[in-house]
């Protein structure tokens, strides 16, 4: 079962579940050791995990109050292992948008992104928003996947959004999520003013309704305004 990290705002009262109008799930996929979890942690917690711990599946859920309505944003961090095909299939079926990650110093990880792209085409009805991310752009001296070539394949052949990023140096991390939400025509304006109101309030981590107890983590919201 996936572990769940569920921060919520104290401005959302006990009856807020009846007011929530939107529930959106972003799925982060890619080969092992490309930095999927590091991207998620940098975005949510503004921290880079120095210890590598293989992910099975982690679900992060944030509740936002926007005016008189609310939204729930899930970020599903998936395993890079082939040992969990059923979990991968379920992630594809339940995802609304997808962030496919490779490492610029690992050519095989870029090929894996191509296979994941085909998997999404085979199992997702309609056109799901996809952003392809070349992580570890800080390792320019170890680059084996050329940016121009990757950009051409992703933008022209696959007709998806592409950018390079570095979870370690916090380069383009927020932009990844801005791009995917813009592609999805996300209806909520998470502007800097509302960002400040939200982060001025404490968060209360909750547990998921299963046998696993969620780890308590405080999330600092990033500005993810969609233009």
Automatic annotation (TrEMBL):
What Gene Ontology molecular function terms does this protein carry? Answer: GTP binding; GTPase activity
Membrane-protein topology: Lipid-anchor
- UniProt KW keywords: Cell membrane, GTP-binding, Lipoprotein, Membrane, Methylation, Nucleotide-binding, Prenylation
Major location (coarse): membrane
Which PROSITE patterns does the protein's record reference? RAB (PS51419), RAS (PS51421)
Q: Name one Pfam family in it.
A: Ras
* Subcellular localization: Cell membrane
SMART domains, A to Z:
RAB, RAS, RHO
Kindly list the GO CC terms recorded for this protein.
Answer: plasma membrane
Which family does the UniProt entry place this protein in? Belongs to the small GTPase superfamily. RasD family.
Q: What is this protein called?
A: GTP-binding protein Rhes
Q: Which organism is it from?
A: Oedothorax gibbosus
Source taxonomy: Eukaryota, Metazoa, Ecdysozoa, Arthropoda, Chelicerata
